[in-house]
Design brief:
about 35% helix; alpha/beta; seven-stranded mixed beta sheet; globular; single chain; Rossmann fold; about 240 residues
């Protein structure tokens, strides 16, 4: 992050990755047009909320705990958690519009209502989430940016983890899944520097998936290619 600003007033934040891939199917385009606005967590963009007024979580969550998944991919895990935890409201954040379209179709099929979607950079969402408001966060198979010169582009840097830490409630849980050993190394270092505590006490704590885990298509690809998943659990201090 730099001190430069966008003409809209937003901080000039470099974003590395794709916003859109191959062409969307007609049904996906229709879902984006008809359903996405209704699933918004509130005014997040700088154009809609230049004063960065915090989201109204009382209206959004209606007394339920708030969870957050950053980079939900095709949305399998997000929908699974929403179905399994009706007493929780979950915000899914994903800038890749093809993944958002895939999620919308899954939401239609699952008929769930305790989920919101923000199709953009998670840092803009962090701007408007109240401090200590998130009870659980997920970062599952994020873009590995394997080249060393690109490691600063990874999500697990201070630019993302420090604002995430501020938005996490005391004692809350942050889960990270990845099949890239060097991503594990960087996550452990950067998460600790941001204030998170790694909860593992034995190898199975990071070798075995969580009890409520559902394997995603990214994990299945990793397993087919003989890469080993790692499941890291962090806790925010009280």
């Amino acid at each position: 992050m730099t001190d430069h600003t966008h003409p809209s007033g937003a901080p000039w934040r470099n974003f590395y990755g794709r916003f859109k891939g191959k062409g969307l199917r007609k049904a996906q385009e229709n879902a984006l047009q008809k359903d996405l606005d209704a699933l918004s967590p509130g005014a997040v963009s700088w154009e809609d909320n230049p004063d960065r007024v915090p989201l109204d979580l009382e209206q959004l969550c209606r007394g339920r705990a708030l969870w957050l998944e950053v980079g939900f991919g095709g949305g399998e895990h997000l929908v699974h958690q929403a179905q399994a935890n009706p007493d929780v409201h979950i915000i899914g954040c994903e800038p890749y519009i093809n993944g958002v379209a895939m999620l919308l179709r899954k939401i239609q099929a699952a008929d769930i209502s305790n989920l919101s979607v923000y199709p953009g950079d998670a840092r803009h969402l962090f701007d408007v989430l109240p401090d200590q408001s998130v009870d659980r966060a997920f970062l599952l198979y994020p873009d590995p940016w394997p080249k060393k010169r690109h490691h600063r582009r990874r999500f697990v840097t201070a630019d993302h983890l420090r604002p995430l830490y501020k938005r996490m409630a005391p004692g809350s849980i942050f889960r990270v899944a990845t099949d890239i050993p060097d991503y594990v190394r960087q996550t452990l270092i950067e998460a600790s520097q941001a204030g998170f505590h790694w909860t593992a006490t034995c190898p199975n704590d990071w070798r075995q998936p969580w009890d409520d885990w559902i394997s995603t298509r990214y994990e299945q690809k990793a397993l087919r290619e003989d890469r080993v998943p790692h499941y890291l659990t962090f806790r925010r201090g009280e």
